[in-house]
Automatic annotation (TrEMBL):
<feature type="transmembrane region" description="Helical">
    <location>
        <begin position="256"/>
        <end position="275"/>
    </location>
</feature>
<feature type="transmembrane region" description="Helical">
    <location>
        <begin position="185"/>
        <end position="203"/>
    </location>
</feature>
<feature type="transmembrane region" description="Helical">
    <location>
        <begin position="91"/>
        <end position="108"/>
    </location>
</feature>
<feature type="transmembrane region" description="Helical">
    <location>
        <begin position="114"/>
        <end position="132"/>
    </location>
</feature>
<feature type="transmembrane region" description="Helical">
    <location>
        <begin position="210"/>
        <end position="226"/>
    </location>
</feature>
<keyword id="KW-1133">Transmembrane helix</keyword>
<feature type="transmembrane region" description="Helical">
    <location>
        <begin position="361"/>
        <end position="383"/>
    </location>
</feature>
<feature type="transmembrane region" description="Helical">
    <location>
        <begin position="420"/>
        <end position="435"/>
    </location>
</feature>
<feature type="region of interest" description="Disordered">
    <location>
        <begin position="1"/>
        <end position="28"/>
    </location>
</feature>
<feature type="transmembrane region" description="Helical">
    <location>
        <begin position="153"/>
        <end position="173"/>
    </location>
</feature>
<feature type="transmembrane region" description="Helical">
    <location>
        <begin position="58"/>
        <end position="79"/>
    </location>
</feature>
<feature type="transmembrane region" description="Helical">
    <location>
        <begin position="34"/>
        <end position="52"/>
    </location>
</feature>
<dbReference type="Pfam" id="PF04932">
    <property type="entry name" value="Wzy_C"/>
</dbReference>
<feature type="transmembrane region" description="Helical">
    <location>
        <begin position="395"/>
        <end position="414"/>
    </location>
</feature>
<dbReference type="InterPro" id="IPR007016">
    <property type="entry name" value="O-antigen_ligase-rel_domated"/>
</dbReference>
<feature type="transmembrane region" description="Helical">
    <location>
        <begin position="232"/>
        <end position="249"/>
    </location>
</feature>
<protein>
    <recommendedName>
        <fullName>O-antigen ligase-related domain-containing protein</fullName>
    </recommendedName>
</protein>
Length: 461
């Protein structure tokens, strides 16, 4: 007599993950746990430059929250008593940049405090290790809660930006925080963050809530256009374009709607650009522009000043073989030594030539520049592949927007040399790098070794 196989009957059904959503290799220990470091990132995105100057004891609030995140992650790993889960790190380039930074710190011959301040932006890349492991350990609910927290931070940022734009006199009465003032606008970074919110809102436009997210998108873009900054405007446009491309690639049924939305956005930008402060500043680069003569002179003067500063820093670094190879290190004010600060404004406390790659070359030479260029190229490649594959989980999409937006303004401003820009950028970079390495590992193992995919095509997607 044949008896039924109870082990097969009791086996739970296998739930398959939709195509395009990456699955972490390790099993999440807590489905609701936030991705480590997100609180610091949300606070820095919400408060921008003035928020980063808030002190918690001897530390700035961003450094305090990041230290707490590292300690909490270490403490949780020690208390778990379990064998460490296999997770994919952000890759060798992050480690190489930290090694180069550490090596140059060992050769410091000047004021150690100044050297540490110069090295801090490069040390922030360690945040990528924190976010990379936490992202893979987090469950779906934890990732969703992470996005919700970041979204609230972006909305808070939009709220005070609107207040500061409409009521600058009120902002002038607010108390000072360090060398800045509460609600004081840092145009390049703040407009870039508005672009991230606009892109995320475009991705969230769904039936039934389209007007809500469309209103947020419009408010973010209008507020950004009201600022006078060209790099921020480029970032806004890039975020809108990336968000629309993600929607187009994700669902064929939405392709026509996304194309129409993109056409409307382009037409609206073309119509509003000439009358907006940011648009007039951009058009002022052309000598035949219709902008006011004062605006034309100021915009073109700023461009000439930066080009002169870049040329002087580049010449100064290349004049000495040692500086060309390993840079001046941390501590020396290479901008003043090269007289690159004269066109920008000597005595204003600026120690970077408004270009992250040039700062890296001057501080770390060809050695550090090679590592940084390779790292940024990897991030851009991952972003392009993510867009081509279609929309991933919402957290990955948000990280793509953060990396694209902040990278653009970093090439034309002092962004990644500052904690409010470096921390969100490398936190998002860690998630993208680790997610790509995890996806490649799953493809190498094949679908037969991963229970959440049912075909090679789904594994590649």
């Amino acid at each position: 007599m044949a008896y039924p196989r109870t082990d097969v009957a009791a086996r739970p059904p296998v739930h398959r993950r939709p195509t395009g959503l990456p699955a972490a290799d390790p099993k999440p220990t807590d489905d609701r746990r936030l991705v480590a470091g997100v609180v610091a990132v949300a606070v820095l995105l919400a408060g921008s430059r003035w928020g980063s100057h808030i002190h918690v004891g001897p530390l700035y609030i961003g450094d305090f929250l990041l230290c707490a995140a590292f300690l909490a992650a270490t403490w949780a790993a020690l208390l778990s008593g379990k064998r460490p889960e296999r997770v994919h790190g952000p890759g060798i380039l992050i480690g190489l940049l930290l090694l180069v930074t550490g090596f140059r710190l060992l050769t410091v011959q000047h004021d150690l405090r100044v050297a540490l301040r110069d090295a801090a932006p490069f040390a922030y890349v360690a945040i990528a290790y924190l976010s990379a492991g936490a992202y893979q350990r987090a469950g779906e609910r934890g990732r969703q809660r992470t996005v919700r927290l970041l979204h609230r931070g972006l909305l808070l940022h939009l709220a005070w930006m609107v207040v500061a734009t409409l009521a600058p006199g009120f902002v002038a009465t607010l108390p000072s925080v360090g060398s800045t003032r509460v609600f004081e606008i840092r145009t390049d970074f703040d407009v870039a963050v508005l672009g991230v919110l606009a892109g995320l809102s475009i991705l969230r436009m769904r039936r039934g809530r389209i007007w809500l997210h469309a209103s947020v998108t419009a408010a973010a873009l209008v507020t950004g256009l009201a600022q006078v900054n060209r790099a921020g405007l480029f970032s806004c446009c890039a975020c809108v374009l990336v968000a629309i491309m993600l929607r187009v690639a994700g669902d064929g049924r939405l392709r026509l709607r996304a194309v129409l939305l993109g056409a409307i956005a382009v037409l609206a930008t073309v119509a509003v650009l000439p009358i907006s402060p940011a648009g007039q500043r951009l058009l002022a680069l052309n000598e035949t522009a219709t902008a006011s003569s004062e605006l034309v002179e100021h915009a073109q003067g700023t461009t000439r000043a930066r080009l002169i500063a870049w040329e002087r820093v580049l010449t100064y670094t290349l004049d000495d073989p040692v500086r060309s190879a390993v840079g001046v290190g941390f501590g020396p004010d290479f901008l003043q030594q090269s007289n690159g600060d004269l066109p920008i404004g000597r005595g204003m406390g600026v120690r970077s030539p408004h270009n992250y790659l040039l700062t890296t070359f001057a501080r770390l030479g060809f050695v550090g520049l090679t590592v940084v260029v390779a790292l940024l190229a990897s991030l851009v490649t991952i972003a392009v592949r993510t867009v081509r594959r279609g929309p991933p989980d919402e957290l990955t999409s948000l990280c793509v927007l953060l990396v694209v937006s902040l990278l653009i303004v970093a090439l034309l401003g002092v962004i990644l040399e500052s904690p409010f820009g470096a921390a969100p950028f490398f936190w998002a970079a860690g998630i993208l790098l680790a997610g790509e390495r995890s996806r490649r590992a799953r493809v190498r193992r094949g679908p037969e070794q991963h229970p959440l995919v049912s075909s090679p095509q789904e594994a590649i997607a």
